[in-house]
Every structure is written in C-alpha cells, then in structure tokens.
Batch of 2 targets.
Target 1
Amino acid sequence: MNATICFIGAGNMAKSLIGGLIASGYDKSSVMATDPTSAQRDALTETFGIHCFADNSEAIAKADIVVLAVKPQVLQSVCESIQTSIHNQSKLVISVAAGIRSEDINRWLGGNTSVVRTMPNTPALIQTGATGLFANEHVSSAQKSQAEHILRAAGITVWVDQEAQLDIVTALSGSGPAYYFLFMEAMEATAQKMGLDAKTAHLLTMQTALGAAKMVMESSEDCATLRRNVTSPNGTTAAAIESFEKAQLPKIVEAAMQAAQARAGALADELANTPKHAENKGNA
C-alpha cells in the first residue's frame, strides 16, 4: 500500500498509528498530519519526520486517505469544514473518534462518502490494541484493505457486519482494559492486605496477567479448558473459583458489559445531535 495518508488531529491515537505505520516500513513521505497547535505539529515532525500542516484543507488536497483523529465533541464541525475538500476527490475517510456513527459522519461530510468507522482501545498506544471496524456502503474492497492496513499498525483488527455491533466491541475490547485494571488492582490490594509488600504484589500481579494472556494467545485450547487445567480438585485454585462462582462473577461481568453497550448507544445518539462548534471549524 502506497497511498498518502492525512491524519486530522495529532493526539495520542494519531501518534500511535503514525508510529506503527512508520515502524512497519511505511514511507514517511506518504504520511501527513494536521493540528492547530504548533507544538503538536513540531513534535510529530521531530519524532517521525513527517510533514505537518495547520490547515486541514491544504493537507487533505494532497491525501488519498483521511483519518479523523479528533475528539468526538468537535468532529461535526471539523467534518463540515472539510466537506468540500473531501468531495473534490473521492477519498476514503477513517474515523477513530469514539461513539460517532458512520451515518452521521457521512451526513456531516455531505453524503456519498466512503467512511470506515473504527473502535480502537487504549493498548493501541503501545501497538497491542484491538480494533473493531465497520465500512459503510460506499467503501470498496480495496478501501477496506487500506483501512485494515492502517489500523493493524496499532494491533489486531476485526470487521463487523452491522454497525450496532461496534457497541458490543466497545463493551468488550474498548472498555475491557479497564476491567482488567480493576481486577488487577483488587488482586494487588488484597495481596498487600495479606502481608506482601507493595512492590512484590505489583510485580506478581502484572506478570500473572501477562502470563495468562500469553498462554491464551499461544494455546489452541479455549479459556474454559485452560482454567480447568490449572484447577486441581479440592486445591487452592478450586477454592478461589468456587468463591467467584458463589459471588456470581459471570453475571457481574454480563451486567457490566451490557451497561457499557447501552451507554455506547446512548452516547452515539447524544453526539449525533451535538450542536455545531463554530470555533473549531477549519482545524482539529
């Protein structure tokens, strides 16, 4: 893939994708970014050697693919300000802005736009992310491949057939890192209450989480089988698992993910009706 990519916005997600692309051998002369803050532009140029612009339209004119990497609250005004630039040439638009539906992005861009909406997660910042993608009806097979190539720079990618499924992706992998952090936080705190020092409790918690994830990724067996393999009858692990089951841990997880899914849909509705932010027009 040798398409020219323009990132609108120079925040953490843009930096992660740009860094991943260049690290994988993508030609940095084919990557650009825009940001209204000169310090952000200078930092990107210094770190990655890419060309940065203050004006969105100037950069878009040179690009084949536009990645919208601005905050969801300003996406409408940004889209409306670049509408003409997008439609002067048929460009693929990829959004990494959380919660904004493709139909709203398409509408704000004037319609008939090839839009791929994505739901990345925070581990993408260290190239170990998991991203869900949805393509609207205007996206070609070639453009889907381009979008996948870009997002793979930050980790794994999966496509969903229905956009509503991105709300499930949000509840699973989008919000999921926080679930693991919470569980690890509880394990670490409990170990300290039991008598371990803070440093030891932290190190063992981190390594245990890493090891468990690595075993799942490298094994041909599912999580349930791996769990049973380390749970000896009447042993210590069995006692802990029984305690989790009595507390109805599976139902707790189900309720939490359903709450996240419902909130994702509600946020999309709210953001679709966000009033224009005139002060943000023209730049991210």
Note: Strands lie at 5-8, 31-34, 51-53, 65-68, 92-95, 114-119, 129-135, 155-159.
Target 2
Amino acid sequence: MSESEEMYLVIIAKANENGQDPVPLAHLATELKVQPVSANQMIKKLEEAGKVVYTPYKGVGLTTAGKNEASRILRHRRLWEVFLAERLGFSPTEADEIACRLEHVAEDDVVERLSSYLGSPLVSPQGKPIPAPSSIEGETDLDAPLALCAAGAQVTISAIKSGEAEKNFLRQAGLMLGAKLSVVAIQSNGACLVKPEGHPFIQLSEQMAHEVRVRQDHP
C-alpha cells in the first residue's frame, strides 16, 4: 500500500477509537487536508482493494482487512512515539509528528524489536492504546468489548469509550488504559464482575462493559 492509502486507514481507525463509525468523507478530507473529491476517489480505490466499505450519506467503515492494516500501522506509530518521548525526550506532540513519518518506513520485525526493547508498552505518550501485533491469533481488531469476554479471562484495557464522568468513576476503581483485570463472572447480556489488579471487585453494567475495550492477555 502507498503511504497515502495507509493514512486514510489510520484516520478512519482513529475516528473509530473516538466512537465515530462510519466516518464521514468530510472528516477524512479535513484531517488529510485534501479536497472532498480526492477523498472520494481514494475511498473508491480502497473499497475496490477490500479495505473499506462506503455507505452513501453515512460514511466509511473498515473491513477486517482494513482494520488489520490500520492496527499494524498504528502499532508502528505509537511504539515510535513511546521511544521518541521516553528515550529521546521529545514532547508527546513532537513524538506524534515524527512517528507519523516513521510508521510507514520501518519493517514489522524492526518494530517488534523496538517493542521488546521498550518493554512491550500498551499505551502511547498521549494515552492511546497500542494495538497488539497481528501475529497474535485473535488480535485482529484494535480492541474488543469487555462484555464479550469469558469468565476467567485475563485482559488489559486498551480503550474506554464512555463519557468523562464514567471514565472518572472507572479510574477511581482502577479501570484505566493499560490496567490489567480478571473477569470473574459475566452475564448473558454482558454485565460482569471484574477484579482490577490492585483494586477491589467491581460490578459493571451491560452498557459500561460494552464501552470498556480490552485486549486478551496471552501466557
């Protein structure tokens, strides 16, 4: 894929992280500083390649292949952000700008060595989840709702799509980006009882369990 094509997938994935799905073409054009007609042409090209699905008057969504590719690129970017901010002293904003260029040029094996060197971080300097490597079976999406986990699962929080009041409540209970927790029990509707590492048990409603996104921990 070209760098320009990759950037479209990244912008769509980042909008999805913020709860926007599908993503309007106008948003893509604004973020990428292109004319709407150019954005429309690129989306048609990506749709033909099987990376996105476009719904007229609504916007663009990622296919599984598109999510996988966007996840891979975001993993590259955010690991470089960690390196630039924590090891070279750049501010989070500066690190993001530089990483935006590096994400397209480094091979996957180089990035995985970088991850090991950094201690396999889960969150970027700006508090965004670092997607799991595509080589881990089942980790194809950027994240999955806690409500879909099985009892006994060990997971790490990768995103929280609630409002600020709910996020503050969860934070006080030990549920924040990068936090590890055990799923103790789960109901058929997704409501669950969890045990955050270093914190007491907490009962989450169906809605909240769907808003907390997690990554399965592997032995």
Note: Confidence is low (pLDDT under 50) at residues 135-141.
